[in-house]
Each structure stands twice: as structure tokens, then as C-alpha cells.
Amino acid sequence: MATKTEPPILSLRNIKKSYGSLEILHGIDLDIHAGEVVALLGENGAGKSTVSNIICGTIAPSSGTMTWQGAPFAPANPRQAIDCGLGLIHQELRLLPYLSIAENVFVGRWPKKPGSIDRRLMEEMAQEQLQRLGLDLPASRLVEGLSTANQQLVEIAKALTLNARLLILDEPTAALGGAETERLFEQIDRLRADGVGIIYISHRLEEIRRVADRIVVMRDGDKVQEFDSGDVPVRTIVESMVGREMGRMFPTFPQPRPETVLEVKNLCSATGAFEDVSFTVRRGEVFGIAGLVGAGRTDLVRAITGADPIRSGSVHLEGREITPRSPAESIRHGMVLVPEDRKLQGLVLSHSIAENIGYANFQSVAPKGWVRQRNINAFADRAIGRFGVKGQGQQNADEMSGGNQQKVVLAKWLAHDPKVVVLDEPTRGIDVGARSAIYEIIVELAEKGVAVIVVSSDLEEVLGVSNRIMVMAEGREAGILDRSQANDVSIMELATS
Q: Domain 10-242 is in which class?
């Protein structure tokens, strides 16, 4: 790693950004040196993504200056930034589903031979990056149908082929499990050794000690703290992010009641994603599902809630077989799914909060078949208040932070007062404050006797919220652990068995 005595490769001085009269960045100074990883941390809305977008030319600052490798730097668009040697992995996936993995990795810069694209070379180079990241898929296959985690690895592979001198990684591990995250960290170590500067943005604070050389904390558009090491206690980081002392990250969860609400018997996927999975969930229980990426966790909960087809097996609710064949059937029986990708699967981003909540609750907002805006607005306002959504009903969903978007998805389904709630990656890509609010919602559901299933790639989270944890490995149930038995080691032993 380069020393601080050497000039930084990137410098920001007094960077401000305003939209009309609203200033959202208040004079940011930041230096990045070659061969160092700087963790840029803060709650949603702190200004991290705005800083990243300014550096990469997506938006222009209102004032302030930047230098890149000692020269004035003001990219007019992302293409100019890439040409200068800067790359950004976005938090939100931006892949083209009907192109191959290789075409997505090299989109806009496909290798060419006289008269055409050199597909053989393109696929060979893409395959090399996929292998480095442990993604065992042919580079020639379409992106359509890839899991969220595998799409995230394709985004990372795209960035690694840029040969950039500075990379901004915005939530690169949000959809990844432990093994995939460690492979990414190995690539970061290699890039750091090659003198590449890295800005690393993450809400997974426990991984910062492993990856960062330095920590910069933002709050409300200001840089409020800088640590000269990545070896900082998580609590210290959190308190600098939120500006106050924090209590427990995970609240106290109630003990479940004895009666069984949900029973899954010998369920098998129609696509082979999982085989012969059986488990029960009691009234008021939070049942965690853990495992490595590709273990079949998401496929399983989608099948249970009717979103994906099954080959055999059955689903029972309160002693009666329901085995839903569609999400509508599942909802009608009292079982709802909050999907892992809130933007693609949970919301209509260009529509208002009120409309998004209303779409899932026509039986309440239009009981006689007539949709009236005032009914939708009133219903949505009650849901917004109940779940602490920071926003107005008429505000578009794409104008909200990730945490508030997730609360809207929760609000629209919990308005059904379901018996079973399935949460797939409920805190993916959201800050510590919003995570705490969602954990409190889970506690409230459990106290009311709702059976809750939580799928999470975050091992700390699944340990923190679950009464019991089922571990999956290669599409099969590897074991079910009581809270007293579960820890990092016992879960990983089962996940890799």
C-alpha cells in the first residue's frame, strides 16, 4: 500500500451539491491514495452515493474541485471517468437480461476483430474473471434467470475487467454469502497490491475490519469522522454514523408458542433447485434460513409462497394442506412473501408510495370494485404511519432511500394481517437505523403470533433474529439448529457439508 507521504491519486476539495435550495453535500474533502481501501460509511441519505456519482461523472458538483493523478478532474459523464481509469460497481444491478454474461461484462467495450466482435476472446476474458470470483457458469449464458447474488458477481466481474486505477464498490457484498464475499476480498487484496485505490461502501460493518485501511464516516451530507485504521469496533462506527450512542442491534425476541402454523413436507423444486425439504414454523416463531449462495434458500421460499413451481411435496397452514400454485393463492390463504429484490420484484418504482400499497390491497381500497384515489391515499397514510415510512403518499418510490422502500414493501403486505410472513433478505443494502426498525417490526409480528421466516446471507443477522435456523447446502436441508446451538461455526459446518 502506498504511504500517506505520496500524493493521493484522487482528491476532493470542498465538494458541494445542491438541488434548488436544498444542499445535500456540505463541502466534502476526501483523499484516496494508490493501493489503499477507504471505507466510506454512513446511513442511507448521508451522501455516500452522491459523492460516488460525482467522482464517476454521473452528476456534477455544484461547487468544489477534484484532481485525478495530480491534474484537474471534472468528468462530464461516466464514459469520461472510465476512460480516465475510474470504475463504479453500483448498488443497484444494471445488467441487460437478454445479453450473455460476457456481453454484459464488456458492454460498450466489446473486443473486436476485423469486421465483427471477437466473441471467443470476449468469452475467454469474461470466463477468467468469473472463475476468480468462484462463479461456475458459462460466460456465454444469458443473464436472464440468474439469481441476485450471481448477478452481483457479474457486476463485480465487469468492474474487474476495466483495469481501473480507482474502483468504487457500492454495497458489493449485499447479496453475497460468506464464501463469495471472501473471494471478493481476495480480489480486493490483489488489486490493492497492484496499486489500485478502492472506495468501499457497505452497510455490513463487520466486514470493514477485514477489508479497509481507513474509514471515512458521513452524516447528513457532512464528513463527520475519519479513522486511520479499519480496525475500529463496530459500535464506535455506528455511533459516529448516527450521532448518538446505540443500544442493542438486535431486540429481544419472544418465545414462540407451541402450536404449528406452517408445515412444509418433502418439498421438491420443479427445476431441481432443492430436494426433499421439510420443516415446521410455530406461532410467533422467527425461523431463519441460512446457507451459501446457490444453496436453494430463495428458490425454496418462492416455491412455498407459490411464486415458483414445485415437483412434489406439500405445504400445510394450520393443519390444512394449501400448497399454493400462485402468489395469489398464497396471499388468499394468509401467507405473503417480501422478495429479495425490492426494486425489481417488490415495487413499481415510477409510481407513488400510495399506489404501490394500494396495488396489493384492492380488497380494502376498492371493496365494491371502484378504485377511488382518496381511499388509496387514506389506506396508504395509515400504513405509512404504522411502519414509520419517511415519505408522503404521493412521493414516487424511486425517490426514497432503500430502507424506506423496504418499509413500503413490508407495509403493503402486512396490511393483509397475514398468518405467515416470509422475508427474503429483509435488510439487504439498508443502513443500521433502518435495519433496527425492521427488526422491531419482526418482533411485533412475532408477539402477535405471526409465523415469520427470514432468509439472510448476513450470518450475524440470521443468528440475531431467529428462534431456530435451518441450514441449506446444495439444495438440501443440512440441519435445523435451536438458538442455543447456533453460532458461526455450527452454521458454516452444516452449510459446507
A: alpha beta
